[in-house]
């Protein structure tokens, strides 16, 4: 089964709106993202139901702790058999290496290890905030590429970044190093709290592997039309 390049962020705090949204897409097998808000409310039972429906899952918990804790947490999470899982690259190489080891240990025999990716700089972070609040000096694209290189060196499969940084990441880490890119908006949509954004078409042109889309679908008056528009734009971005 080929996985959809469009990952729908199910940013809800209970199950009801999840099924109200997904029912609008009929029997289509989707790639969905379960983040902290939904996972902390609905837990593993929801993941099982999503899998039963044939959906692919990105479990977005953005682990960031000491290497031992992250490694052991990943060992537990591996048993959930999700497709993608993530950490913060800011935790450093040892933490990312332990994350991967934990995932490998926890993956049930005969099953695939979840793809493990690292968040570089959140798409809600502007260069100014990164420099002034986080006291990370440099240009944001250089920092993103640096974190991507650390993730690659640690053996991870890819990173989360804005589409804007994808060409530089691919140049530094190779074309097969995965880029999963939130910060996606259709023309005319509100930026909300996002800072580094593109349209789906621009993201494809910049060679993102996957786009993560939340509010452009979930807050739309017509989520089905929004998804169709995103798919059309994606196909035009080649
Ligand atoms: O890891 C993520 O998925 C993520 C990383 C990042 O840098 N920026 C980011 O927006 N995300 C997630 O992507 C989704 C974007 O949602 P919208 O802004 O509504 O499209 C949210 O669920 C965020 O948690």
Automatic annotation (TrEMBL):
According to its UniProt record, in which pathway does this protein act? Answer: Pyrimidine metabolism; UMP biosynthesis via de novo pathway; UMP from orotate: step 2/2
Q: Which GO terms describe its molecular function?
A: orotidine-5'-phosphate decarboxylase activity
Which keywords does this chain's UniProt record carry? Decarboxylase, Lyase, Pyrimidine biosynthesis
> Could you tell me the superkingdom of the organism this chain comes from?
Bacteria
Family annotation (Pfam families): OMPdecase (PF00215)
InterPro entries named among the record's database cross-references: Aldolase_TIM, OMPdecase, OMPdecase_AS, OMPdecase_bac, OMPdeCOase_dom, RibuloseP-bd_barrel
Write down the CDD domains for this protein, in alphabetical order: OMP_decarboxylase_like
- Any Gene Ontology CC annotation: cytosol
State if Lyase is listed as a keyword: yes
Q: Which residues bind substrate?
A: 11, 33, 60-69, 123, 185, 194, 214-215
User: Which major enzyme category is it?
Assistant: lyase
Tell me the Gene Ontology biological-process terms attached to this UniProt entry.
'de novo' pyrimidine nucleobase biosynthetic process; 'de novo' UMP biosynthetic process
- Per UniProt, residues of the Orotidine 5'-phosphate decarboxylase domain are 5-230
Location of the active site: 60 (for ompdecase activity), 62 (for ompdecase activity), 62 (proton donor), 65 (for ompdecase activity)
Q: What is its EC number?
A: 4.1.1.23
Q: Which residues form the signal peptide?
A: none
Please write the reaction equations for the catalytic activity of this protein: orotidine 5'-phosphate + H(+) = UMP + CO2
Q: Which family does it belong to?
A: Belongs to the OMP decarboxylase family. Type 1 subfamily.
Listed NCBIfam families: PRK00230.1, pyrF
PANTHER family for the chain: OROTIDINE 5'-PHOSPHATE DECARBOXYLASE
Q: What does this protein do?
A: Catalyzes the decarboxylation of orotidine 5'-monophosphate (OMP) to uridine 5'-monophosphate (UMP).
Describe, as the record does, how this protein assembles with itself and its partners: Homodimer.
State what protein this is by name: Orotidine 5'-phosphate decarboxylase
Organism this protein belongs to: Anaerobacillus alkaliphilus
Provide the taxonomic classification: Bacteria, Bacillati, Bacillota, Bacilli, Bacillales
């Amino acid at each position: 089964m080929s996985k959809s390049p469009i990952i729908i962020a199910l940013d809800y705090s209970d199950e009801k709106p999840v099924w109200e949204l997904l029912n609008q897409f009929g029997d289509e097998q989707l790639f969905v993202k379960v983040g902290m808000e939904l996972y902390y409310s609905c837990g593993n039972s929801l993941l099982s139901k999503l899998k039963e429906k044939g959906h692919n899952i990105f479990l977005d918990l953005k682990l960031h702790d000491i290497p031992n804790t992250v490694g052991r947490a990943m060992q537990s999470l591996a048993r959930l058999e999700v497709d993608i899982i993530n950490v913060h690259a800011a935790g450093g190489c040892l933490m990312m290496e332990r994350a991967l080891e934990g995932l490998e240990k926890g993956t049930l025999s005969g099953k695939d290890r979840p793809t493990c990716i690292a968040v570089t700089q959140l798409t809600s972070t502007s260069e100014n905030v990164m420099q002034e609040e986080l006291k990370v000096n440099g240009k944001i694209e250089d920092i993103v590429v640096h974190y991507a290189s650390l993730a690659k060196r640690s053996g991870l499969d890819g990173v989360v970044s804005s589409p804007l940084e994808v060409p530089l990441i691919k140049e530094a880490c190779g074309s097969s190093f995965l880029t999963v890119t939130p910060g996606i908006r259709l023309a005319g949509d509100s930026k909300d709290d996002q800072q580094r954004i593109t349209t789906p078409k621009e993201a494809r042109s910049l060679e993102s592997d996957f786009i993560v889309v939340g509010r452009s679908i979930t807050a739309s008056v017509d989520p089905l039309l929004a998804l169709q528009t995103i798919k059309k734009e994606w196909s035009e971005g080649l």
